[in-house]
Amino acid sequence: MENEQNKKGGKGWLIGIGAGLGCLPLLMIGLFLLIVAGMFIIIVDEEDQERSSSFGSFCRLEGEVDFDIWDANFADSSKVGALAGYGDTIISLADEYGIDPVLASAIMLHETGRGTSNAVRNYNNPGGIMDPASGWSSLMRFPSMEEGLRYTMANLKRRIIDDGLDTIEKLGAVYAPIGAANDPNGLNQHWVPKVTEFAAELGGLIMNCEGIPAIGNDAFQIIYEEMLKYQGWGYVWSGNNPSTGFDCSGLMQWAYAKAGIQLPRTSYEQYKFSQRITEDELQPGDLIFFSTASYAPVTHVGMYVGNGKMYDSNDSGVGYSDPFNSYWRPKIVGFGRVADFSE
């Protein structure tokens, strides 16, 4: 029933040459920040909007890697490319250097386009690190992926621990500042959202991050009022903005962004991104997830608005639905919270 943009493969590559801070790969050593003009490779969702999160990335409440999610990702080359099979190595190296393996991996996946870049495939270079011996004009080559991972982790340790850039937001503000003069195409705006999305796919950060942010009822009203603008609009496959119309997850992503909450694109990604709650814990602003088709575990999402109602985009259009009626209730997969709107 529900479209998901991923099914249509809406990914695009932007490969370019840039100079200076605004377009540097993250994992450059300090000197590189001052003198380099080099290559950057960044993956951008063609339908990604100009949004960023106003609060810290979500933590796993247990403070430990979710190994079911982690192992499933690093066993699948379609998800991590050339990094498949190196999940245990990354965990071990992250522990050695005292950094979050989820954060490190999210950055590497972003820098290498899910492990598919030339750097990681042909140079064993998962950080896109340039070679100082070449005057920063060519990629460093490592004899093995293990050595490339170790070098990358050591660089990350310097950035995260020594320089205190210990969150996605802090790292992004330094290495991909929005509005930088040397970022005329606005690519830097995608860095924080995409790294955050990769971290969510891997189960959530385990260090230096927030749990569920308490942002209050005013933020919920911003989201709700944005959704109400589109009441009565038709459902649009792959739609995620007012110019195209909305599918279910596109409506959630667009409206929540108005309150500074960056959600992943699809309902299944939003399910993984959110904190699990029970039906009894539902508050306005929470998400309800459903399975309406066989192509993914979660294929539909709506926002709970109170009084037993949700607001969503489905085949009947954008508007109110009863998630607990005889049609929807059997399809409920779970409930999720991305912010506390109660205060």
TrEMBL record:
Gene3D superfamilies associated with the record: endopeptidase domain like (from Nostoc punctiforme)
Every NlpC/P60 domain range: 217-339
Record key words, sorted: Hydrolase, Membrane, Protease, Thiol protease, Transmembrane, Transmembrane helix
tRNA-binding is among the record's keywords: no
Positions of transmembrane segments: 12-44
Source domain of life: Bacteria
PROSITE patterns attached to this UniProt entry: NLPC_P60, PROKAR_LIPOPROTEIN
GO biological process: proteolysis
Keyword Transmembrane helix: yes
GO MF entries: amidase activity; cysteine-type peptidase activity
Matches recorded under InterPro entries: MGlyc_endo_b_GlcNAc-like_dom (IPR002901), NLP_P60_dom (IPR000064), Papain-like_cys_pep_sf (IPR038765), Peptidase_C40 (IPR051202)
One matching Pfam family: Glucosaminidase
Family statement drawn from the similarity comment of this UniProt entry: Belongs to the peptidase C40 family.
Protein name (database record): Conjugal transfer protein
